[in-house]
Amino acid sequence: MRVLFTVFPATAHVYPIVPLAWALQNAGHDVRVAIHPDAVDLVTDAGLTAIPLGRREILSSVVEFNSNLDLLDGLDDSYVLDTGAETPRWEAQWHGMTQVLSMFTPLLQDLVDLAERWRPDLVLWDPFCPVAAVAARITGAAQARILWGQDNIAWLRTKSKQQLAARGAMPGEDPVNTLMAPMLSRYGLDYDDELLLGQWTIDPMPAGMRLPLDLPYQTLRRVPYNGAAVVPDWVLDRLDRPRVCLTLGVGGRGRQVFRESGVSFPEIVATLAELDIELVATIDAKQREQVTTVPDNVRLVDYVPLSQLLPTCSAIIHHGGGGTFAAAVAHQVPQLITPMPFWGEHITAQYVADRGAGLVVPSAELTAGKLRDQLSRLLTEPAFGDGVATLYREMREAPGPAELVPVLEDLTTKHRS
User: Fold this and answer.
1) 282-to-265, 316, 394 alpha-carbon distances in Å
2) Domain for residue 389, yes or no?
3) CA angle 185, 190, 196 (to 5 degrees)
4) Parallel/antiparallel/unpaired status of strands 201-203 and 142-146
5) For helices 131-139 and 108-118, angle between their N-to-C axes, nearest 10 degrees
6) Structural domain contains residue 134
7) Half-sphere exposure of 416 toward its Cβ, with a 13 Å CA cutoff?
8) Residue 194 backbone dihedrals phi, psi, to 5 degrees
9) Contact between residue 11 and residue 42 where contact means Cβ atoms under 8 Å apart
10) Strand, coil or helix: what is 291?
């Protein structure tokens, strides 16, 4: 069958689809990835076929996040859910989310043209790209979302529907109309929630982290992909002390942890170096300039794929990103997390702690000394090894990409028209 992925043009959104795309391709299916013209290298570097989608000026500001880390300072916790009984933020969050989703509306005609010419059997789309569901509906393809984190969009949509029904609201009061009407009216289509939430949803996060939603989910074990690179010689060196990775991810809010905590990067590095460890910190050029003295047991690097580095590590310090979490679980490395909430990082951190696979230091409580002391616990207390093993077994129980392929084949046959 022909499978078309439609992806939000950012590294943190492309990387999660790669193992499933490989599995489909290896099973003999024709796989292509539609993405912004300036982000096609994220796809082709992974050995996949890219199709440039739309004009360069559309979503150009989003693409710039991959090359201009200063833009990350504009990110905040606006879309972090409070799923308690009374959540006063949800309504503003949902209105804001519909505005985010509408960024893809100008790409609809290009995507419809692509789908009509190539005729995919299955369209798998980023939850930020509902235009892909509309294109699939028009051309008769089966379609499903593939998540990269917690399903905040579905939760906000469900909350909105409940509240609208409770107050007897008229259909025109539904924020979804503002989002979807410009897409559907030109094609004479009526709205239903499949066009926003998919005919089903592929969820690569552990079932225990899933929000309580009545939706058809297909669980997928997240196989970490972190890009390809030549392995540095030092990665394979024989170690005489534990190696610890300090990383802030490839996107999101991780790099704001120092600003929000008031603790500087050089202070963190100097204090962690007091331990008998080798610290490998992945940093950008601006952070490197801040460190005037590099201790002998510290290695500052621009980037090393976690799949290369983590097999040699005894612990990892990170901000709670989904890709870093999955890589640490896959390589059975204890995690020390200072969550920087942007989407669901605090949920990830708590999940790790609850299973005894790591520790959490909230950014509001972060000090260099506390981070050092908690890292020392990770490295010396055997119980964390048991927690890591438990979390690894739990992740392995979910079907991997190759195991999901026949499920997708059956679902495509069922839903394709």
Assistant:
1) 11, 11, 29
2) yes
3) 100
4) parallel
5) 40
6) yes
7) 16
8) -60, -25
9) yes
10) coil
Share of the chain above pLDDT 70, in %: 93
| Paired strand residues for 359 | 336
- Mark whether 347 and 405 lie in a shared domain: no
Same domain, residue pair 186 and 250:
no
Residue 253 lies in a domain: yes
Dump pLDDT digits (tens) for 255-310. 677 777 788 888 999 999 999 999 999 876 666 777 778 889 999 998 889 999 99
Phi, psi values for residue 234, rounded to 5°: -65, -25
Backbone phi, psi, residue 2, to 5°: -100, 130
- Both 99 and 178 in one domain: the answer is yes
235 token code pair = 């990665």
Domain count, the chain: 2
Q: Please classify residue 153 by burial: count the beta carbons closer than 10 Å to its beta carbon, then call 0-12 exposed, 13-18 middle and 19+ buried.
A: buried
Mean pLDDT in residue range 50-78: 76
DSSP result, 70-123: GGGGG--STT----SS--TTHHHHHHHHHHHHGGGGGGHHHHHHHHHHH--SEE
Q: Please state whether beta strands 122-125 and 2-6 pair in parallel, antiparallel, or not at all (unpaired).
A: parallel
Count of C-beta atoms within a 10 Å radius of residue 170: 7
Domain co-membership, 260 together with 288: yes
Domain carrying residue 63: 2-221+398-415
Radius of gyration of the chain (CA): 22
Residue 10 within a domain: yes
Within this chain, do residues 27 and 175 fall inside the same structural domain, yes or no?
A: yes
Residue 350, pLDDT > 90, answer yes
Q: Is 32 helix (H, G, I), strand (E, B) or coil?
A: strand
Q: Which of 44, 42, 51, 47 is nearest to 23 (CA)?
A: 47
Residues 295 and 208 in one domain: no
192, 241: one domain: no
Q: Which two tokens stand for residue 237?
A: 């060196």
Distance CA 177, CA 14 (A): 29
Q: What is the CATH number of the domain that holds 153?
A: 3.40.50.2000
Q: Are the C-beta atoms of residues 396 and 221 closer than 8 Å to each other?
A: yes
User: Distance between CA 283 and CA 121 in Å, rounded?
Assistant: 42
- Same domain for 307 and 411, yes or no, is no
Closest of 193, 210, 208 to residue 158, by C-alpha: 193
Q: Where do we find the tokens 């690569």? A: 204
